[in-house]
Write a structure and sequence with these properties.
The chain is an all-alpha fold and 78 residues long. The protein has one domain. It is built from two helices and no strands. It is extended and about 40 Å long.
């Protein structure tokens, strides 16, 4: 995955590039109540479930260590 992102990033301006990403193991589904029946994302529920992961993606840009001890490491395997 990182190799493909690196390829795409070479064609983008620096402000457009993907700098961090995470792969979640659980699909977003209606049954998991993360999508509506019309397949719209239930943002509040997604945020609540993956809050630590999202925060981990931003921590080192705020001056804190990248992992922050919260288990929000980027590029976690599926």
């Amino acid at each position: 995955m990182q190799k493909r992102i690196d390829q795409v990033n070479t064609q983008l301006a620096s402000y457009e590039t993907i700098k961090k990403f995470a792969i979640i193991g659980d699909p977003l589904t209606v049954e998991a109540e993360l999508l509506t029946p019309s397949l719209k994302i239930r943002r509040k529920k997604v945020y609540d479930r993956f809050h630590a992961l999202f925060e981990g993606l931003y921590e080192d840009t705020r001056g804190a260590p990248a992992d922050g001890g919260k288990g929000g490491a980027p590029a976690a395997g599926a």
